[in-house]
Amino acid sequence: MKVTGPAGPVTGSAPRASRPAPGFSVASGSAPTGPAATASASTLSGVAGLSSLVALQGVDDVAERRRRAIRRGGGLLDRLDELKLAMLSGEAGEGALDRLSRTLREVRDDAADEGLKALLDQIDLRAAVELAKAEVRRNAP
């Protein structure tokens, strides 16, 4: 089935003949007819469609920001676990430190929930402390 426009779905290969629907009539009166009516209608719908799209793109709902904040916090906790496992196995964990640093530098969305914001602050602080400790170990004589 193929949708070709306002006529709706078309099945088969034969084109549909355009016939007015039964009971349909155009009211005659003060409404403009012809190209002027078409131009004004298309202009209005184009502007309305564009402004609607721009408005939808600008909407950043609370649930989406919360989801991104939780995903970032979970990623930081995963990187901290990688670092812990690398250090317990006796490795320097340079790869884990690089990934932790990159994840920490990601843009953080402000969560509307104060509890979540406080938790994410603690995770960020712990990651920053681990990076600072690694820097001290690198610079030690």
TrEMBL record:
Region (Disordered) residue spans: 1-40
Gene Ontology BP, a term: bacterial-type flagellum organization
Stored Pfam families: FliX
Compositional bias of kind Low complexity: 25-40
InterPro entries: Flagellar_assmbl_FliX_class2
Protein name: Flagellar assembly regulator FliX
Species the sequence originates in: Brevundimonas variabilis
Source taxonomy: Bacteria, Pseudomonadati, Pseudomonadota, Alphaproteobacteria, Caulobacterales
